[in-house]
Design a protein that fits this description.
There is one protein chain. The chain has 113 residues and is an alpha+beta fold. It has two domains: 65 residues, no CATH class; 26 residues. It is 36% helix and 19% strand. The chain is built from three helices and three strands, in the order βββααα. Strands 1-2-3 form a three-stranded antiparallel β-sheet. β2 and β3 form a beta hairpin. It is extended, with a radius of gyration of 23 Å.
């Protein structure tokens, strides 16, 4: 994939089925100043037989550059999906930063006395 081609993944809450997120994948190519748009078809799943399960790992479904993966993560955040392990991380970080600022003020005041 050249530098003028990017993958965009968009997430949408389905208006009539609140417990599902719709995912759309597009490949945008701006090569030679001409924009083309390709949309991914719905995925299909292939059942592996016992011999295939324990051989070498299967090919990935797709590849994303780090900026494309970040965009996908931001899209999921936008529609309300949060990491299981990091659900409170934003609030915890804010509390930690406040605590550090308080400690800096205490140390600074102590040094000036």
């Amino acid at each position: 994939m050249n530098i003028d081609t990017r993958t965009e993944i968009r997430a949408y809450r389905e208006p009539w089925i609140c417990d599902r997120i719709a995912i759309r994948v597009a490949r945008i190519d701006d090569t030679n100043g001409t924009r083309t748009l390709a949309l991914a078809n719905p995925m299909t799943f292939t059942v592996l037989d016992k011999n295939e399960m324990f051989c070498e790992p299967p090919s990935p479904t797709m590849h994303l550059r780090p900026d494309e993966a970040q965009h996908f993560m931001d899209e999921l955040w936008r529609v309300g999906i949060r990491p299981t392990e990091g659900a409170g991380s934003v609030g915890q970080m804010a509390a930690t930063e406040k605590h550090l600022e308080d400690m800096r003020q205490l140390v600074f005041k102590k040094q000036t006395v």
